[in-house]
Amino acid sequence: MLSCFVSLWMAAAVGQAPSGQSAWLKSVPADVVAVVRVKSLETVRDDLLKMLEAMSPNAAALAKPQIEQGLEMFAASQGKPATQHPFFTIFRLPKDGVPVPPFAVLVESDSYLGVLKSISKKDDIAPKSLGGYDSFDGADGQTWYAYKGAGFVAFGPDEALIKAVSKPSASLAEKISDELKAGLLGGDIGLYVNIASIQAQYADQIEGGKQMIMGVLDQAGAQMAGNMQESVKSMYAAMFDSLKIADALAFNLDFATEGLGISGLATVKADSAAGKGLASATVGSAEKLGMLPADSSAFIYMKINPEGMSAMQKFGISFLTGSSKPSPELEKALALQAEAGMNETYSANISGGTVSGMESLTIATPKDPEKAVEAMIAVAKAMKSGQGFVKDVVIAPKALIYKGFTFTSTKMTLDLEKMVTPGAPGGVEGMKKMLGGDTITAYYGTDGKTVLSVAAKTVDEAKHLVDVVLSGEGTIGKTPNFAAVRGKLPKQATALFLLSAQGLIKQSAQQMSATLGKGDIKVPADLPKDPALLGAALVASPKGFSFQLVVPSNVGPIFEKGLVPIIQSLTGQIQ
Question: How many whole angstroms separate alpha carbon 44 and alpha carbon 109?
Answer without folding.
Answer: 19
